[in-house]
UniProtKB/TrEMBL annotation:
This is Sugar ABC transporter ATP-binding protein. Residues 12-255, 267-511 form the ABC transporter domain. The keyword Cell cycle does not apply. It comes from the Bacteria. PANTHER family: CARBOHYDRATE TRANSPORT ATP-BINDING PROTEIN MG119-RELATED, D-ALLOSE IMPORT ATP-BINDING PROTEIN ALSA-RELATED. CDD domains: ABC_Carb_Monos_I, ABC_Carb_Monos_II. Transmembrane segments: none annotated. Keywords: ATP-binding, Cell membrane, Membrane, Nucleotide-binding, Repeat, Sugar transport, Translocase, Transport. InterPro entries: AAA+_ATPase, ABC_carbohydrate_import_ATPase, ABC_transporter-like_ATP-bd, ABC_transporter-like_CS, P-loop_NTPase. SMART domains: AAA (SM00382).
Length: 512
């Protein structure tokens, strides 16, 4: 590790990288070497240090020890501006667009073209909006994106924002692009578009560091793979040297025999029934039942209306028609409080934005949805001791990895944050549990734990609705699959009859 120059043939070499935060050693001697014109996939469980390593590379964090060599020059911690100037661009998993600005303004933020002609050109401080729009349109034409440069960023879906961020990185002419979970919120069609752009970047010698938890994606796109675990380097090699069991074993330090630990449990009486639920222009005539102990998978392409249906069921969005029955009796649900009061809970796909208060502690988040059970006396004081006892019970039950209940929820890994959201609802008296993309952005080890918990919940008699865009998860965990297309239910499949082909046929409207 005392070489003065990097290995020939690598655009990037990171040697012995160490980084500590108060009370945590996030990186401990990590190595990474990336070849130009290749996709180097960086893998590890949530909390392994992948994003921290990339933030070190992109200049967001200063390293404590180690060396970084990029294109033959040593990086000396010049910050994000210096990294960008050298040709290192990072697309974060957590997007941070300026929603009130246009797409073009977001792409060129901080490097806006200025007027060169006309009476105001001499001031050199007036933005040339026409030129900005022209360059943005040229970029979109090249990438095949169908957005208007003048469209407001806040009007885009999460998928749209992700694609614009990718375009922004490409527009900077970067020679190394870091992509942190870039496909976590985009459709299959958009994934194909992204992969085409990656192939184009590779053909021009651009290196890509790609972080993903999706096994099929990793083996499809990777040229090389590096594994880190608990902040330490584990191994590197060509993607062709790996298979899924070996990669999982290196990531988690053990083999995972059953990622989908589905068990057959007794199916009880019908708990929830939807009859003709309709929200005009969004979904129409949605009808299905869920029984006690049953996991019903809700499948379909992005935009099929799956999330919209469960949002209406939970009282987040209004219904125009239809009936909801709980234990055979009609109920009215106009707001989430109505649903919660009847024993219906929903774990949103956006756990950070809608499921957690990131600035509050683990214990506070667990107790958040059930504060009334801890109120004592006529003046309504909270019994903090009881609150802590119940939160600690849930922490142990769900195996939430945290130093203490006082730890900030925002500091935990994605898998442990998802367990906090589950714990919050399980403190209540539940009948129906809605899980919207329960393992999105979660590593394979944590996925297995979430799936185990789902099986435990079903065994306890909960009626579970699971939305997932990952067909192996739908097939692995569902007792029955409801398929949607363009706001309509197109079919129901038993566990025995459900296959990837049969689900996709119903999701796309293809003839079987």
């Amino acid at each position: 590790m005392n070489r003065a120059t990097p290995d020939a043939g690598h655009v990037l070499e990171m040697r012995g990288i160490c980084k500590s935060f108060p009370g945590v050693k996030a990186l401990d001697g990590v190595h990474l070497k990336v070849r130009p014109g290749t996709v180097h996939v960086l893998v590890g469980e949530n909390g392994a240090g992948k994003s921290t390593l990339m933030k070190v590379l992109s200049g967001e964090h200063a390293i404590d020890e180690g060396e970084i060599w990029f294109r033959g020059e040593r990086l000396d911690g010049g910050g994000t501006r210096d990294a960008l100037a050298r040709g290192i661009a990072m697309i974060h998993q957590e997007l941070s667009p300026v929603p009130e600005m246009t797409i073009a303004e977001n792409i060129f933020l901080g490097r806006e073209p200025t007027l060169r002609h006309g009476p105001l050109a001499a001031l050199r401080s007036f933005v040339d909006f026409a030129e900005m729009a022209r360059q943005t349109q040229a970029l979109f034409d090249r990438l095949g994106l169908r957005y208007a440069p003048t469209q407001r960023m806040g009007e885009l879906s999460i998928a749209g924002m992700q694609l614009v961020e990718i375009g922004k990185a490409i527009s900077r002419g970067a020679s190394l692009v870091i992509m942190d979970e870039p496909t976590s919120a985009i459709s299959d069609t958009e994934v194909e578009m992204l992969f085409r752009q990656i192939d184009d970047l590779k053909s021009r010698g651009v290196a890509i560091i790609y972080i993903s938890h999706k096994m099929d994606e990793i083996f499809r796109i990777a040229d090389d793979i590096t594994v880190i675990r608990d902040g330490q380097y584990v191994a590197s090699g060509a993607a062709t040297d790996y298979d899924e069991p070996r990669l999982i074993a290196q990531m988690v330090g053990r083999s995972i025999e059953r990622i989908f630990p589905k068990e057959t449990v007794p199916i009880g009486a019908t708990v929830l029934e939807l009859r003709g639920l309709t929200r005009r222009g969004v979904f129409e005539d949605i009808s299905f039942q869920v029984a006690a102990g049953e996991i019903v998978g809700l499948a379909g392409l992005i935009g099929a209306g799956r999330t919209e249906v469960v949002r209406a069921l939970f009282g987040l969005d209004p219904l125009d028609a239809g009936q909801i029955l709980l234990d055979g009796r009609p109920v009215t649900i106009r707001r989430p409080a109505d649903a919660i009061g009847r024993g219906i809970a929903m774990v949103s796909e956006d756990r950070k934005g809608e499921g957690l208060v990131l600035c509050r502690s683990v214990g506070e988040n667990i107790a958040l949805a059930n504060l009334t059970r801890f109120v004592r006396g006529p003046v309504g004081l909270l019994d903090r001791a009881d609150e802590q006892r119940e939160a600690e019970r849930m922490r142990k039950l769900l195996r939430i990895k945290t130093a203490s209940l006082d730890t900030g929820a925002g500091t935990l890994s994605g898998g442990n944050q998802q367990k906090i959201v589950l714990a919050k609802w399980l403190l209540g008296d539940l009948k129906v549990l809605i899980l919207d993309e329960p393992t999105r952005g979660i590593d394979v080890g944590s996925k297995s734990e979430i799936h185990r918990l789902m099986t435990d919940f079903a065994r306890q008699g909960l009626a579970i609705i699971m939305i997932s865009s990952e067909l192996p998860e739908v097939l692995g965990m569902s007792d029955r699959v409801i398929v949607m297309q363009e706001g309509h239910v197109t079919g129901q499949l038993s566990r025995a009859d459900a296959t990837q082909e049969s689900i996709m046929a119903l999701a796309t409207g293809a003839r079987q």
